[in-house]
Amino acid sequence: MAYNLLNGKRGIIFGALDENSIAWKTALKVKEEGGSFTLTNAPIAMRMGKINELAKACGAEVIAADATSEADLTQLFSKSVDVLGGKLDFVLHSIGMSPNIRKGKEYGDMNYEWFLKTLDISALSFHKVLQISEKLDAMNEWGSIVALSYIAAQRAYPDYTDMAQAKAMLESIARSYGQRYGTQKKVRVNTISQSPTKTTAGAGISGFDVFFDFADLMSPLGNASAEDCANYITVMFSDYTRMVTMQNLMHDGGFSTSGITQPLIERLSK
Ligand SMILES: NC(=O)c1ccc[n+]([C@@H]2O[C@H](COP(=O)([O-])OP(=O)(O)OC[C@H]3O[C@@H](n4cnc5c(N)ncnc54)[C@H](O)[C@@H]3O)[C@@H](O)[C@H]2O)c1
Hints:
Elements: E1 10-14, H1 22-32, E2 36-40, H2 43-48, H3 51-58, E3 61-62, H4 70-84, E4 88-93, H5 99-102, H6 112-135, E5 139-149, H7 161-185, E6 188-194, H8 200-203, H9 208-218, H10 226-237, E7 248-251, H11 262-269
Parallel strand pairs: 1-2, 1-4, 2-3, 4-5, 5-6, 6-7
The structure holds nicotinamide-adenine-dinucleotide (NAD).
Nicotinamide-adenine-dinucleotide binds at residues 14-15, 17, 21-23, 41-42, 45, 66-68, 94-97, 121, 148-150, 194, 196-197, 199-202.
């Protein structure tokens, strides 16, 4: 059911790779709620993924951009404002990648060049998005910018390795830039900390199935799905959350404040 929450609003959605991507589900939901947007991904992901399929379904233009490249991002923001016919109201940063995780490196054997790449792609790119949008004056007042995080920013998970540092940095950027952007242009900046979700990025982490099941048992409502996350992002883009900024918002079915749950006790008692 649609509520026209985003009627007349314009934005950019980063990170739709395939139909499992959180950004993919978000694009469909934002469209349903009346928003218009451009879609973007790294040039290499556009060749491997199915973004054009999504673009067709949403009537959206695709603009390639490597989120680590200031030149690409500058072009993306200016072109999006042109294509959509005015300044933007929302941006979704749904980007994560660790070469160390992809290549199976353990935390005690990190390749530091790759570590820096993880931080650049998964965290610093968020600062670049914010800074470039501000310099180009591309956002409307009360606009909303959201990035996706994970609870490994606060707690240790053995296989999340350098992505844990990337997420801590991402959340910190949301606070620092949120303060600046709110004061100067009334733009909101938040991160949403999502449950484990079966996507390409999620499934790339070794042991993913185990911590997916563990989180599901530890969450009174169960794991939040990608569709639920898309719904929450949509609300965060709407005028109903105008005064929410500089937050890391837990979207995890209650996982982060559970000590232990009855289903987990029963599972461990067996
Ligand atoms: N899947 C989970 O369990 C989970 C849980 C919490 C948070 N998240 C976060 O959600 C976000 C979206 O991930 P997802 O789970 O939908 O997986 P996904 O693999 O579908 O999306 C990740 C996206 O990042 C893009 N990307 C990688 N490098 C890029 C670059 N240099 N420039 C531009 N884009 C680039 C990929 O092409 C891909 O589209 C990520 O930030 C991820 O860390 C995921």
